[in-house]
Design brief:
This protein is α/β, with parallel strands linked by helices. It has 2 domains: about 160 residues, Rossmann fold; about 70 residues, Trehalose-6-phosphate phosphatase related protein, domain 2 (Alpha-Beta Plaits, 2-Layer Sandwich), CATH 3.30.70.1020. It contains 7 helices and 12 strands. The strands form 2 sheets. The chain has an 8-stranded mixed β-sheet with strand order 5-4-3-2-1-10-11-12, sandwiched between helices. Strands 6-7-9-8 form a 4-stranded antiparallel β-sheet, covered by helices on one side. A hairpin with a 2-residue loop joins strand 6 and strand 7. Helix 1 packs parallel to helix 7, helix 3 packs antiparallel against helix 4 and helix 5 packs parallel to helix 6. It is globular. The relative contact order is 0.19. The structure holds ligand L263DTV3.
């Protein structure tokens, strides 16, 4: 089914949850090649002000990665697929790092050394193999990550041209629901924007709480009610939605 674009007044009285990679910034060859430019920084600052702080970035990246990209921002952050949270009141919570991750990183690094172009991303609560530069390595990367996750009883997390082994027990949906329980957001209507399969639990959670999801990218099966074609359309729509809040 073709989903319509969201109306410009969708954010009125809402709490806004934003995925990062593929939603606010274009995907790049390398995780560290991504930057928050002046337009995006100003847009998120305006939105945060217009929504009285009811904005959260919900990412697979670690909290500290998002924080560094935005320069210690005044909004909530869910990082590492819901395993780390900076709450609207500034408190921080995070799951425990299992010792097994050190062995997993070592195994992934050995695989990357033997497979030029594959990158290992070390995260506080996970480790990811990126094969964007070597698509032919997909099968071997997934096989290795699947075995490492099973051996350590950790969670296998797929992503766009990457596969990750991470701590289980949370996802973007549990993060959105927990944030909606915080005093700053309780009673509002959650609106979530995201592009990836990993964003679907948050689309489902937003709907369950009376809100909606906006799919970013090409049509696909989704719990979202609205769709925008890509990052450029998303930034333009967020601009228009901010104007609508001020009107
Ligand atoms: O939940 P998100 O904010 O969308 O983060 C998902 C993952 O994003 C990053 O990887 C992806 O973006 C990279 C930069 O564009 C790209 O090179 C990579 O192929 C993508 O998978 C990030 O590195 C991961 O940690 C996030 O889980």
């Amino acid at each position: 089914m073709t989903l319509p674009p969201p109306p410009a007044d969708l954010l009125r009285d809402a709490a806004l949850f934003l995925d990062f990679d593929g939603t606010l910034v274009e995907l790049e060859a390398h995780p560290e090649a991504v930057a928050v430019d002046a337009r995006l920084a100003a847009l998120i600052a305006r939105l945060t002000q217009a929504l009285d702080g009811r904005v959260a970035i919900v990412s697979g990246r670690p909290v500290n990665g998002i924080r560094a990209l935005f320069g210690d921002p005044p909004f909530a952050i869910s990082g590492s697929h819901g395993l780390e949270v900076v709450w609207p009141d500034g408190r921080e919570t995070r799951a425990e790092r299992p010792a097994a991750l050190d062995r997993i990183v070592a195994s992934m690094k050995a695989f990357a050394t033997a497979t030029p172009g594959v990158l290992v991303e070390e995260k506080p609560l996970g480790a990811a193999l990126h094969y964007r530069a070597v698509p032919a390595a997909e099968q071997a990367a997934h096989a290795l990550a699947t075995r490492l996750a099973a051996d350590a009883a950790l969670h296998l997390q797929t992503g766009k041209m990457m596969v990750e082994v991470r701590v289980p027990g949370a996802d973007k949906g549990t993060a959105l629901a927990a944030l909606m329980d915080s005093p700053a957001l309780a009673g509002r209507r959650p609106v979530f924007l995201g592009d990836d399969d990993t964003d679907e639990p948050a689309m489902v959670a937003a709907r369950a709480l009376g809100g909606a999801g906006v799919l970013i990218g090409a049509p696909r099966p989704t719990a979202a009610l609205w769709r925008l074609a890509g990052v450029a359309d998303t930034l333009n729509w967020l601009d228009a939605a901010t104007e609508s809040l001020a009107a």
